[in-house]
Design brief:
With 388 residues, the protein is an alpha+beta fold. The chain contains 11 helices and 14 strands.
């Protein structure tokens, strides 16, 4: 089993176990120790893992961090554990004291067994940063997360590796923030640069304010075009998607509101998809397709129905999700709202007509809803199994 498969296995175990965990000790034994083992450390060897490690700082004596992880007899990371479901932001000061008490330390992690926050000392040597340089959530893990996490394995991790990785990821976060601000409110300096680069516009006193909305519009449209090109690449295979009559659900599934079933099968090719779907629906369909493929579902069974204001997603001709966009994006699922709330804790959840609705900002959020999408599909297939 390679590292990616091991991570996915642990993620599945965490999802199965977390609802049965009621305190910090259970969190440690059931969730965090397996994580340390995932990184390749022997949790039973005190030369590699020391529980309740004393990390005195100043006048505070007897303070103990939950786990000190060692390599070649040197502390390589601290891990502070909190009960599953805890707000990790409330304990940064505690972790900071542990970090600052150990000058050779370059990595401190705080976790509830599901979410992990990684801290270092990028801004000031031997002083823990106030913001993490990396975060991972095992309920919505991505391949990029796994790639970053692989650097912390026993065979790779070194203080210089941690320092470089922390600096690089912190820089990426800062660059993303600058770009986000430029997209929302282009600075005067940025507008001057754009005007100069065009070589066709005179840089007068009124040019900046005149071209500010044009620059902002150009930035957003260019970003949309880039997303569109990525979607086209994902949707490159030429196999057609077939949409047939959606069978009537069993009594355990109530139809979603405004369900429209065509009388005749409609064949929609990838090329027609690109022509007829709006950009945002293209991106949603591409991301759903990737989620199913990554979770070993036969994507040839995935089809869609494009309504005037909704995208209906079917698998083996059974509807399992609906997508709608207005000021915000919405997914409708047959899942109970309480289940959806657990699978999508960072988003607004509501219910309507026996369905749960997730409200989110953009298709980029779909990466955080993998478990919700898979659960919606599996529920639909289970409830329709009698019709197979």
């Amino acid at each position: 089993m390679n590292f990616e498969e091991e991570v996915q296995t642990l993620a599945a175990q965490i999802q199965q176990r977390k609802s049965h965990i009621t305190n910090e000790e259970m969190t440690k034994h059931s969730l965090i120790i397996p994580f340390i083992q995932l990184l390749g450390f022997d949790v039973f060897n005190p030369l590699e893992v020391q529980p309740e490690y004393t990390a005195d700082f100043g006048k505070k004596k007897g303070e103990k961090v939950d786990y000190a992880v060692l390599k070649n007899n040197k502390i390589i990371m601290f891990i502070e554990a909190k009960p599953v479901g805890s707000r990790l932001d409330n304990h940064n000061a505690q972790l900071c004291r542990y970090f600052n008490s150990t000058p050779e330390l370059k990595l401190a992690i705080i976790t509830d067994g599901v979410k992990y926050k990684f801290f270092s000392d990028v801004k000031q040597l031997n002083i823990m940063d106030t913001t993490p340089f990396f975060q991972i959530d095992f309920s919505s893990i991505t391949k990029a997360d796994i790639q970053t996490l692989s650097h912390f394995r026993k065979k790779l991790i070194e203080n210089n590796v941690i320092t470089k990785l922390a600096e690089d990821l912190s820089s990426v976060i800062s660059i993303q923030e600058v770009l986000r601000n430029l997209f929302n409110d282009p600075s005067d300096e940025f507008i001057r640069l754009i005007i100069k680069q065009t070589g066709k516009i005179r840089l007068t006193n009124g040019a900046i304010e005149r071209y500010r909305p044009l620059v902002k519009e150009s930035l957003l449209s260019t970003l949309s075009e880039i997303f569109n090109e990525v979607s086209k690449e994902v949707l490159q295979p030429t196999t057609a998607k077939t949409i047939k009559n959606v069978p009537k659900p069993t009594h355990s599934i109530e139809p979603l509101s405004c369900q429209i079933v065509p009388e005749q099968p409609v064949i929609i090719t990838k090329e027609q998809l690109r022509q007829e779907m709006y950009d945002i629906e293209q991106r949603v369909f591409a991301r759903i397709e990737k989620v199913l493929q990554d979770n070993e579902h036969d994507i040839s069974m995935l089809s869609f129905k494009l309504l005037p204001d909704e995208l209906v997603l079917n698998f083996n001709n059974y509807e399992f999700l609906r997508f709608k966009s207005s000021d915000q994006c919405h997914f409708s699922s047959y899942l109970d709202a309480s289940v959806t709330n657990e699978l999508c804790p960072y988003y607004k959840i509501s219910s309507k007509d026996e369905s749960s609705i997730v409200t989110f900002n953009s298709p980029a959020d779909i990466g955080n809803m993998v478990q919700f999408i898979i659960a919606s599909l599996e529920l639909t297939l289970e409830n329709n199994s009698c019709l197979q």
